[in-house]
Write a structure and sequence with these properties.
It contains one helix and 13 strands, in the order H-E-E-E-E-E-E-E-E-E-E-E-E-E. The chain has 157 residues and is mainly beta. It folds into two domains: 95 residues, no CATH class; 59 residues, no CATH class. Strands 1, 2, 3, 4, 5, 6, 7, 8, 9, 10, 11, 12 and 13 form a 13-stranded mixed sheet that branches. The longest helix is centred in the N-terminal third of the chain and has 6 residues. The protein is elongated and about 45 Å long.
Length: 157
């Protein structure tokens, strides 16, 4: 524990978002078995053996099954099954199931979902509530659009 407390000092920077603790590295087996704990922010690299959950994540996030950010994500999020960012994802999300509150970047997967899309979705099924971007896939849905469902390509303004 003394090594862990040295590697992940509490309140290292008081100006981090919401005054939360943060770490440049995180390793997760499951959301309840991870170092540091899931209420920390990660700015750097996170590896999720099975699944991991932290608040804000910035950098590279790699998970064999799933990775979750309960706040914002900036960078590249990759997983074997599902990647989910509750708030804003700025960057790239590549997973069979890619989910984001607001996407400012690119989603690549079988099923992609973003409430707000500012960028590109490439997949079999793409969904956005509102979009200022492009969807490429078999089924493309922009709910708040005059033509909400289109095959191959859908563009939102």
């Amino acid at each position: 524990m003394s090594i862990a407390s040295f590697a992940f000092p509490r309140n290292a920077f008081s100006d981090t978002a919401y005054g939360r603790d943060w770490s440049p590295l995180a390793v997760s087996m499951l959301p309840t078995v991870e170092l540091p704990s899931q209420n920390w922010d990660v700015y750097g690299f996170r590896i999720d053996i099975f699944a991991g959950r932290h608040h804000d994540v910035s950098g590279i996030d790699v998970g064999s099954l799933a990775n979750f950010a309960t706040g914002d994500f900036v960078g590249m999020q990759l997983s074997g099954v599902v990647s989910k960012t509750d708030n804003t994802l700025t960057g790239c999300q590549i997973s069979p199931i890619s989910l984001a509150g607001t996407l400012e970047g690119v989603q690549v997967g079988v099923f992609n979902k973003a409430e707000g899309l500012w960028g590109l979705q490439v997949g079999v099924v793409n969904y956005a509530y509102q979009a200022n971007g492009v969807q490429i896939g078999i089924v493309n849905i922009i709910e708040n659009s005059e033509l909400p469902i289109l095959p191959v390509v859908n563009i939102g303004f």
